[in-house]
């Protein structure tokens, strides 16, 4: 991540007495390696919407894409505030990370071309995208809008010995 490191705070009331705040670099490792993220958005009527999707951590932000008519894209048009979650589906081991921020459209073609390459490098040829008119395009004529989420606040949940909850605050 470029810029200063976020402030890390151990949430003592939710942590083992032996726990210490986890470094942001550990969360970045989880975000980089994760294959699936859960995106939480808010519908125009205020109800929550959660969906799994693939994504990338690069340049200090999480990136994901979605078709322009999908529920999450329509939600983002009304309210760009999101939560992205990833980690393990276990209770006694692993490290879960939750990122809060604003989903900002990525339309710069140079940046999109770089992201398309990273997408394919991470997820394989089934996730090959061309860049056209400020979005990803696939061979079938589909369009996917790309969003970047720079963390405003993040949480890390260490599971096992010791259990811990770290909060990172960003400038």
From TrEMBL:
Keyword check for Nucleotide-binding: no
Residues in Pyridoxamine 5'-phosphate oxidase N-terminal domain copies: 26-135
Keyword set, alphabetical order: Oxidoreductase
Classification via InterPro entries: F420H2_bilvrd_red/Heme_oxyg, Pyridox_Oxase_N, Split_barrel_FMN-bd
Pfam families, per the entry: PNPOx_N
Annotated protein name in UniProt: Pyridoxamine 5'-phosphate oxidase family protein
The species this protein was found in: Streptomyces yanii
